[in-house]
Amino acid sequence: MQKLSHSQTGLSVVEALVTMVILMITLGGVYQIFQSNSLTYRMQEGLARVQENGRFAMDFLVNDVRMAGYLGCISDVSRLNIVLKDKTSYMYNFKESASGYEANDSLQYPLEDRDGTWSSSTNSSISKASVKATIGALSLLPGSDILIIRRAYDDGVSVTKDPSKKHQAATIHTIKEHSFELADIVLVSDCDVAAVFQVSSTPQSHSITHNTGTIQVPSPDGSGNVAVGPENETSNLGKSFESGSFYWISTFSFYVALNTSGNPSLYRKRGNDSAQELVEGIESIQLLYGVDTSEDRNVDTYVTAASVPDWSKVRSVKIGLLVSTMDEIRGMDTNTDSYNVLGTSIGPANDMRIRRVFTATVGLRNRLK
Predict the structure, then answer these.
(1) What separation in angstroms does the CA of 317 have from each of 78, 172, 252, 312?
(2) Residue from 295, 298, 304 nearest 316 by CA
(3) Which of 76, 202, 225, 314 is 20 to 30 A from 127 in CA distance terms?
(4) Which of 110-114, 145-149, 295-299 has the highest mean pLDDT?
């Protein structure tokens, strides 16, 4: 009998097409899973970064607000004697523990360096240029409030001897070496009174001098000396501080501006020093101030900076932050949400960034009961 061979020698066209379809469906499913997992990872990473930045920014703000008005071991500003010539200016008005500016404009997207105005308790429309000049900022982002805190900081250096009588200049001696320098603004405080003055001559390792007259420091370019204000109005500190301590004291300004990468960041500026970028991704600060209207050192109502009747009556601050991812998250749905930050509506941004609102209420320890 003739034997026939039926061995398989390849795939038919139909079989090849069916195989390709099955492979494409399988690969498409794998790709969809990969895309979904990648988007989930990017969103989780972005959310973690937002939460981290929000927490860091709030920590910086809360720590300074909590210590607003710190004057050593006294808390009554009526016992503070500011002997500087410019004692009521923005930088040296240390009897105002906390104050601020209220943004008149809404935050506009995309974020750009636009013009804007701010309000204070005495002026309802302050230009951006004027605010920048006052606080010494290089840039500001309209739509965000500005917080000002004044306080002493760092560990105190104890006084061992103060030979001054109330009406003469003196060199006050300290118990240990210090790092105060010529022209520094210094607080000396005991548990009775406190005084703020400018160091008037190059301090020695265990002494600090206060006197009237021009205070000069070497110029940055080395061409000679330049006068540095505000100078001391009097050499009379009000008393002898033989049981007191020295502290640095300064005005701290918190605001939002675009950094060199074009991202919004929280900045802190100490006195006349250069501003320090603290945290990226902070789009807006919104503030409410707890005011004591009944003179019992408790908060009766919360108002914006423009409605504070007297900054000495502020007992606490409510802080609201809007925080976003620095970059857009590819594949994410367009964010069309609006965000309520302490009563201020912000958005929608219509971009692909994750945003979250952070809030905290902080008491001014040195102004509460």
Answers:
(1) 22, 37, 15, 13
(2) 298
(3) 314
(4) 145-149
Measured in whole angstroms, the distance separating CA 83 from the mean position of its chain's CA atoms is 28
Q: Which amino acid is at 305?
A: A
Residue 30 confidence (pLDDT) = 76
Q: Are strands 194-198 and 80-82 parallel, antiparallel or unpaired?
A: parallel
By CB neighbour count within 10 A (0-12 exposed, 13-18 middle, 19+ buried), where does 95 fall?
middle
CB atoms within 10 A of CB 234: 17
Fill in the amino acid letter for 239.
K
Instruction: Read off the pLDDT band of 264 (50, 70, 90).
Output: very high
Helix/strand/coil for 302: strand
Q: Which of 304, 270, 321, 367 is nearest to 59 (CA)?
A: 321
Nearest 10 degrees: Cα torsion 276, 282, 288, 289: -20
The answer to whether the CB of 141 falls within 8 A of the CB of 275 is: no
Cβ atoms within 10 Å, residue 284 = 25
Give, in order, the Cα–Cα distances in Å from 113 to each of 56, 108, 320, 327: 24, 10, 22, 18
| φ/ψ of residue 315, rounded to 5 | -115, -20
Tell me the CA end-to-end span of the chain in Å, nearest whole number.
115
- β-strand 355-363 against 314-324: which pairing, if any? antiparallel
- pLDDT of 10 reads 63
Residue 349: helix, strand or coil by DSSP?
A: coil
Assign 369 a pLDDT band (cuts: 50, 70, 90).
low
For the chain, the residue count is 369
Give one DSSP letter per residue of 95-156, joined into a string: T--EEEEEE-SPP-SS------EEE-SS-S-EEHHHHHHHHT-S---TT--EEEEEEEEEEE
318 within 8 A of 361, measured Cβ to Cβ: yes
What is the rounded CA–CA span in Å between residue 280 and residue 45? Answer: 15
Tell me the two tokens of residue 188: 């000396």
User: What whole-number distance in Å separates Cα of residue 301 and Cα of residue 299?
Assistant: 6
- Residue 274 pLDDT more than 50? yes
